[in-house]
Amino acid sequence: xxALTWDQVGERLYETGVDHGVLYLPDVSGxxxxxxxxxxxxxxxxxxxxxxxxxxxxxxxxxxNLVSAEEFGATIEAFTYPEEFAQCDGTALxxxxxALGQQGRKTFGLSFRTRVGNxxxxxxxxxxxxxxxxxxxxxxxxxxxxxxxxxxxIAFSWDITTTPVPVTGYxxxxxxxxxSTVVDAADLTALENLLYxxxxxxxxxxxxxxxIALFAGP
Length: 218
Fold this sequence. Notes:
By secondary structure, the protein is mostly beta strands. The protein has two helices and 14 strands. The chain has helices at residues 185-196, 208-214; strands at 14-26, 32-37, 41-50, 53-58, 61-67, 70-78, 92-95, 98-100, 108-118, 122-137, 156-162, 165-167, 170-173, 175-179.
């Protein structure tokens, strides 16, 4: 047997940053076939909830634990957002430059990237792709403040709830994470060509089944 060791060179891993945000809008059949770049993304806070144990008693002892369903939510913060996100934020655009609030809120998909670093290569070591499905944005505050001697850009924020989508052989999910330091590089490139678009394809968010199939190997 080999004794355990800690903090070896190249194994001091960490995650940082957020970039490459993309908003995906579904068509009438629920396929996320329209992707647009989300500039100015500053923070995505993933907030799982549920999965709470409920103790059951019998024969004067604790008999078992029943666990509630797990849900996935998030908070998105950004300095700006794509014009296409307006319909997801309860805003209608009857004509260019005119916006009506308190309208219906369309569901959407989201992808973003976080950096994976280590003690040798820093943040160039790799990254993770986060794919989020079935999102719906809740109404949020927007604070407009006077310009002063310490000006700051307005930071927009949205609380997001999700509805899981089906996955063959697994429970429905709202989140997939792909680690570039583990998966095959060619398969990863194929996924990124789908997410971000390529010469022959428009950017789109593939289904969980399609993502799994990409990395299933020959």
